[in-house]
Amino acid sequence: MPVRKAIAGRTEKTVTKATERFGWESYETSWEKLIERKGIDLIDIANPNYTHKEIAIAAAKAGKNVLCEKPLATNLSDTQEMLKVVESEGVKHMICFNYRKTPAFALAKRMVEEGNLGEIYHFRAVYLQDWPIDPQFPLNWKLRK
User: What is the mean pLDDT of the chain?
Assistant: First the structure.
């Protein structure tokens, strides 16, 4: 069973709340310090995607396994560099596709497989999130023209 050893957050006030709320044993206010800690086997990178490359590479070089939330990086060359490092360091690594097993997607998949929708020629999907409406939110791959 996984052990929630430590969580990292930018501010002590918010990370202590998360530590208590979600049952973590301890916390850091620096991802760099978290990666240096002994007894940490896996780093789950759930930061904004423009930070993924730096953290994943540092974690792999420290011998930590890497679980990275999607999107993996902001461009293809960064993802290729990340892959090269995790493979050369021999750590386990994966991307978290957090919507893959949601009930709505499972239902849609089952309806298609069972033929309940007939032959599908076209579909349109929309990914609804509100985080980009904040004018202070850092520019990322989704917002570039």
Answer: 88
